[in-house]
Amino acid sequence: MTAIPAASTDADPSPGPPARRSRVWRWAARLVALVTLAITIMMVALGIGMRLNDRAIDEHLGSATATVLSVSPLRTGIEFVDQAGATVRPEGGVLYPGLLSVGQQFVVEYSVADPQVARVAGRTASVGTIMIVVTLVVTYLIAVPILWWCHRRAGLPITRLLFGARRPPGHATGGAASTV
Fold first, then answer.
1. Which domains are delineated in the chain?
2. Is the pTM of this model over 0.85?
């Protein structure tokens, strides 16, 4: 029979509950990981949305001459006359508006099925893909060193830093076993 050794009263450096400082760094790492994940999901959704808009335009392609009504950081307002002769002012503005100015006239491609979806002629989702990739690269260039730094400050393995004291599924407890 093997006996389990008694717990010693000495200061044991064995892993116990994490210190408060370790918990703060662990939560900081989780926050950084969560923000990074949120940015990644938003960029992927934006890329999918751009491709879907381009497909809607390509499936029912119409073109017209448009006039820029307003330019703001979030939207470029335009106005054009569609094939049916109706004046259209897309609520979301024009897709891929780079370098347009108020009063400028340009050719717009739009979906005949839904004239609210319009883009500058000749521009596609590939224009926006460059910015998505740059945003993701910068996000990860910032997040990875911060996660590494939090890992070093917490003094925990990276998996424990992000997922807490829980063990991965199927992982043995590693305690001493007694045999009879």
1. 20-163 (2.40.50.140)
2. no
